[in-house]
Design a protein that fits this description.
mainly alpha; 2 domains; two-stranded antiparallel ribbon; about 0% strand
Length: about 160
């Protein structure tokens, strides 16, 4: 079976790490200081952020040195497949849909709609897709809401919350 991949230049990942490290460094500036202590809650996240920045800078340097020999992004054949691009679009759209709709609609209906859409784009027969989505949604809800005690939104189902 042929492996599918997208090759990105190291400089791209380096810039992402640099941005992440800078964001963490910016964020820890607001952490409170502990009176009488030489270290505070910002020390370890700050050290990790510095490490991210150093690694990011090294990757940027490496990627820029290799730039003449390789492309910034080398795409694989799947990018030309409308079905695969649609699947990626459904995945990204599902994330945005959950962020926008989960509080109003609730976890259960939102997750079921997302799973049905994702299963249909993967060419699962509609009846089976709905059945799998319903079962998977309730299993995920049970695991997170009951076992892990994660407060999932009820939305429209608030009057029926268990």
């Amino acid at each position: 079976m042929r492996e599918t991949q997208v090759k990105l230049n190291d400089a791209i990942f380096g810039l992402v790490l640099l941005a992440l490290g800078a964001a963490v460094l910016f964020g820890v500036q607001g952490f409170p200081k502990i009176p009488g202590q030489p270290v505070g809650p910002a020390l370890f996240p700050g050290l990790i952020a510095m490490g991210l920045c150093v690694c990011g800078a090294m990757l940027v340097w490496s990627g820029l040195r290799e730039r003449p020999r390789e492309a910034w992004v080398a795409w694989d054949d799947w990018v030309r497949s409308p079905r695969h691009v649609l699947a990626l679009g459904i995945l990204l759209g599902a994330i945005v849909f959950y962020i926008v709709a989960a509080n109003w609609l609730g976890f259960l209906p939102t997750a079921m709609l997302i799973l049905v859409a994702m299963l249909l784009v993967l060419r699962v027969p509609p009846g089976r897709a709905v059945l799998i989505a319903v079962i998977a949604t309730f299993v995920i809800h049970f695991a997170f809401y009951k076992l892990l005690r994660v407060p999932l939104p009820w939305g429209l189902l608030t009057p029926y919350a268990w």
